[in-house]
Amino acid sequence: MKLCSDSKILIVGxxxxxxxxxxxxxxxxxxxxxxxxxxxxxxxxxGKGYISSGYTxxxxxxxxxxxxxxxxxxxxxxxxxxEKYGSYIKRGAYVTDVxxxxxxxVYKAREILxxxxxxxxxxxxxxxxxxGIKNADYKIFRGANYIVTPTADNTEDAKxxxxxxxxxxxxxRISFLSPEEHDEMIGFLSQLAxxxxxxxMDCKESKHLVDYTGNSFRDLTRIADINEDMWTELFLLNxxxxxxxxxxxxxxxxxxxxxxxxxxxEKMKEMMRLSSKRRRYFNVKPKEEKIE
Amino acid sequence: MKLCSDSKILIVGxxxxxxxxxxxxxxxxxxxxxxxxxxxxxxxxxGKGYISSGYTxxxxxxxxxxxxxxxxxxxxxxxxxxEKYGSYIKRGAYVTDVxxxxxxxVYKAREILxxxxxxxxxxxxxxxxxxGIKNADYKIFRGANYIVTPTADNTEDAKxxxxxxxxxxxxxRISFLSPEEHDEMIGFLSQLAxxxxxxxMDCKESKHLVDYTGNSFRDLTRIADINEDMWTELFLLNxxxxxxxxxxxxxxxxxxxxxxxxxxxEKMKEMMRLSSKRRRYFNVKPKEEKIE
Lengths: 292, 292
What we know:
Chain A is of the alpha/beta class. In chain A, 48% of the residues lie in helices and 13% in strands.
């Protein structure tokens, strides 16, 4: 089975990502319902046609009519929602999410649902530096990556449906990684990058530096303007992996720093040749790709 | 005295920056001569009208006719040139450079010239990731910063002439910093940024990561594709300052890493709030600004 054209999809959480999902899936012709905390958000989503029904309350009958439920909440809020209302979900439904950490979420979600409905994790690697449904725009998914993170227990149907959601939203590349592989990769590529940017920006009062700052420093610190609640939660939920990646980076930086201290020019050049070679793999930059 | 319209300017070294200087100053109507290692480069510069005379040999009579001499060479090559041929320079001429480190260059250059001609350092904060005179384009200076680095002994005339060169080339902002202030600032804003990018790129074989890499990691590592000879020389010439800046950064990163290890969410959020606040000073990005 794949995602059917008459599948009813519920999106819980209508922020930037949930709102963009709702917009994109409705545009594709799916019947999309929504649950959000604020009445204003629900009214906005209804008014824009992103959802055809929506509530601020969690109603058993309403939740129970959907074939697919997508959670677009912060990881911890998502898990407590599931603890509280998971039993409202239709038996046999497929449940997925959009959170940026997987190992600490996926197994718990599957455990809470206990086979009543099938959970399968997904990470849409897209975002903007603005928040809320008023900034929703499913075009941010075009050209971006979408990672499905099945466990050994997930069914083929769940994998296909989850991948179909990514395809319906226009993601460029759908891949499959285990939750553990995902967290290692995202710990290095995304979370460590944010750690570095925050630490660098925290080094000095920067007001007087603005006049001398060029593209290198600007590019490195762009992501230092950061949503502290979300990223602190994501960092903590991937703690062990992120610490491992940070220590790996710190060791490499120390290697270069020590080569400099010892005036070992050959070692420095060797490290630069390696970085140049590896960076060139990235030279073809896909259009509109985003990852936060 | 300021830079006169009939001042004769010699540019030694006709690579990307020297070539762009020659092009820009000729376009402004100055008489520009050039010295470069390769006959092909000299011929190209003459053919394009970037210089009105040029040689591969260093001829005493030729060098002696210029009022201003600009060195666009790697720092060490520049200092040995000056050792060897400094006495050819016209008595009372003004001499400047384009190197990215100052303390280790400026005092030596002044010492070598021993008052025969007046040296004053300058750092045009512009560049491209390509090299050679065929990529010369003085439009890279538009919107960029140009820093004059006088010592306590420089004359007002030298400062004005050096600033005038920056103005003639179209730099957006001309500032004055002591060589020491310059090196601290550039150690942090530019060299440390390059250290971080190289170390991060060296952490892992990255071919398989390309598929999952988004803008954060791409932005952080753009400058990891690096000219190893030039940057190793620049790093070594600013060794003490760069080690100081790198250690400052490593400490900050360790602070954030330790907060994560201790699950000190409040400390993590505090560091993120500070980085967000400081990064917002940079939000207005000047058009076409470049710094390498």
